[in-house]
């Protein structure tokens, strides 16, 4: 079993013209920090998104939110999603996740949990996953 220093939460964030996934990832990382004992975090992103984050999010917040930032520039396949944010608002936007399958190679941790940036950690329940012996688990 990996030592606690090598455990962490990883998340992918790629901004598009409508959504700042970098800001969502910070919110999620801060919830991880507040609720998990295995609370090291890594952001897996591209140059454009991390540049935007560094320009719009205070440096001390980014540094606290993420223990590691891994930048990989990939070509994102066209993947448009329709969003219905409320009865009064709907829009289409690019959704980029073409390299999630590569999380084993991109994570800086020996044992990782990958979560989406819109998943809010509100309890210590995910810590239990780190104590399992599964090589791969879906929850």
Report on the structure:
This protein is α/β, with parallel strands linked by helices and 139 residues long. Helices cover 29% and strands 24% of the residues. It contains five helices and six strands; from the N terminus they run E-H-E-H-H-E-E-E-H-E-H. Strand 1, helix 1 and strand 2 form a beta-alpha-beta unit. The longest helix has 15 residues. The relative contact order is 0.26. The model has no long low-confidence stretch (mean pLDDT 85).
Summarize the structure.
The chain is α/β, with parallel strands linked by helices. It has five helices and six strands, in the order βαβααβββαβα. The longest helix is centred in the first third of the chain and has 15 residues, at 21-35.
How many beta-strand elements?
6
Structural class, judged by helices and strands?
alpha/beta
Distance between the termini: 20 Å
The helix count comes to 5
Report the biggest beta sheet as strand number plus sense, adding barrel if it closes: 4 strands, parallel
H-E string: EHEHHEEEHEH
Beta-strand portion reads 15-25%
């Amino acid at each position: 079993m990996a030592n606690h220093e090598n455990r962490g939460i990883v998340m992918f964030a790629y901004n598009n013209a409508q959504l700042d996934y970098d800001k969502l990832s910070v919110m999620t990382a801060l919830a991880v920090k507040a609720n998990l004992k295995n609370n090291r975090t890594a952001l897996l992103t591209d140059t454009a998104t991390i540049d935007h984050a560094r320009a719009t999010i205070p440096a001390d917040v980014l540094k606290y939110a993420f223990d590691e930032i891994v930048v990989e520039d990939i070509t994102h396949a066209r993947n448009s999603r329709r969003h219905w944010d409320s009865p009064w608002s709907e829009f289409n936007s690019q959704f980029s996740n073409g390299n999630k399958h590569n999380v084993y190679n991109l994570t800086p941790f020996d044992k990782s949990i990958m979560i989406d940036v819109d998943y809010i950690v509100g309890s210590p329940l995910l810590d239990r996953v780190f104590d399992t012996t599964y090589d791969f688990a879906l929850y």
